[in-house]
Design goal:
Length: 197
């Protein structure tokens, strides 16, 4: 080999080295970043699996306690609201019935010994109509029950059974002692009836 060839070779090596050096530096920089991430992971992974499980259990326990506490607060709040609702549920009905009581008091005050029966009856009839109208507005309905109707244990209560005065009244209602009432679809008082045997 000649000197020129050696010089060319040396120059090419230097150029290759100069070009390779920045790449190595870049690779070293990336490697340093990766190294930092690996070190962070190692710091996290320094814990044993038992410690990891203990931490997970502690987090789960904390979440459970928070959820349980929220549920208890919700339960207490709804129970309090329910009690308040029960206390004031009949308030609307009572307020609607107070004018009827006022009418009864007026009727009693205006009744005198010499008042004629027709006038007293008309006054009481007006109060009765007002009272039943108020109950109907609040959803209370009288259960229609008449002599000769079939006995229905869903709306009737047989208080006694007597021999049927007629054959067609056997197993049927002979007399209505007290009418029954419904509030919406719910029976709040069964009609007390006498059935024929």
């Amino acid at each position: 080999m000649s000197k020129e060839d050696n010089n060319k070779e040396t120059i090419e090596k230097e150029q290759n080295t100069a070009e390779a050096t920045p790449e190595k530096e870049v690779k070293n920089e990336v490697t340093e970043e990766e190294q930092a991430e690996i070190e962070e992971e190692e710091e996290v992974d320094d814990r044993t699996p038992e410690e990891n499980l203990k931490e997970e259990v502690a987090e789960a326990k904390d979440k459970y306690l928070r959820l349980f506490s929220e549920f208890e607060n919700f339960r207490r709040r709804t129970a309090r609201e329910k009690l308040d609702l029960i206390k004031t549920a009949s308030e609307e009905l009572v307020v609607a019935l107070i004018p009827v009581v006022d009418d009864f008091e007026r009727a009693l005050q205006n009744m005198s010994d010499d008042a004629d029966a027709k006038t007293v009856r008309e006054g009481i009839d007006l109060v009765y109509q007002k009272f039943t109208k108020t109950l109907n507005q609040k959803g209370v309905e009288k259960i229609a029950t008449q002599k000769g109707d079939d006995f229905n244990d869903e709306v009737h209560e047989a208080i006694t059974q007597i021999p049927a005065p007629e054959d067609k009244l056997k197993g049927k209602i002979v007399d209505v002692i007290e009418p029954g009432y419904k509030l919406g679809d719910k029976v709040i008082r069964f009609a007390k009836v006498v059935t024929g045997a």
